Amino acid sequence: MHTPSPSVSEPLVPLAEAYAQLGIPVRARTVTRWCRDGTVPCTRVGGRWYVRLKELRAAAFRETTVKP
């Protein structure tokens, strides 16, 4: 089964930009922690985190729906 290159299907965007577009109430500190602990696959380039918005949104959705 052929999987398309992730960079083509979903571009990496700066974490701050992805966070601004998120639209789900999670804290910026939480999002940064997800990058550090591997909850969301992030790429660090020149001291800045880059993330795929779809993956960040999925993690934020899980975070907000799992809690009672």
Brief summary:
The chain has 68 residues and is α+β, with helices and mostly antiparallel strands. The protein has helices at residues 6-9, 15-22, 28-37, 53-66, and strands at residues 12-14, 42-45, 48-52. The protein has a 3-stranded antiparallel β-sheet with strand order 1-3-2.
CATH topology (fold) name: Multidrug-efflux Transporter Regulator, Chain: A, Domain 2
Estimate percent helicity.
40-55%
User: Class, according to the CATH hierarchy?
Assistant: Mainly Alpha
CATH architecture type? Orthogonal Bundle
Question: How would a crystallographer describe the biggest sheet?
Answer: 3 strands, antiparallel
Instruction: State the end-to-end distance.
Output: 38 Å
Strand order of the largest sheet: 1-3-2
Kindly give the count of domains: 1
Which regions are unreliable across 5 or more consecutive residues at pLDDT < 50? Answer: 2-7
Order of helices and strands: HEHHEEH
Let me know the number of strands. 3
Cα shape: globular
Computed structural class: alpha+beta
C-alpha Rg (nearest Å)? 12 Å
Number of helices: 4
Q: Kindly state the mean pLDDT as a whole number? A: 87
Percent range for β-strand residues: 15-25%
Question: Can you give keywords for this protein?
Answer:
68 residues; Multidrug-efflux Transporter Regulator, Chain: A, Domain 2; single chain; three-stranded antiparallel sheet; 53% helix
